[in-house]
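Hi there,

I know you've been waiting on this one. I reran it after we fixed the sequence typo, so this is the corrected version. Both the input and the resulting structure follow.
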Amino acid sequence: MSQPKIIVSDRAVNSMRRLLDNIKSTSLIGAEEARTVIMNRIRKLAANSTAADSRKANFVTLEGEFRSILAWNYRIYYKVDDGQVVVLDIFLDKN
């Protein structure tokens, strides 16, 4: 079985850009490290889209398998669908 294709939505790209711009205002190195951690986490979704450390996202009104996973303090929401993983959004998770 081949690995699923990773698709990053425009919304997720814009969210990541906003998060990184916010971090850059205080630390260029911190922003680069955050970018690296988030991108590596997204790449790993291709190998294991239902990782043990992910959790099922509760989108009651939407059909499909929605999940979320943490990369440092950033929660990545994604959908697993027909041989592909669609990254929907990235949030700062302050919990």
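Quick highlight: The two ends are 36 Å apart (CA to CA).

Best,
R. S.
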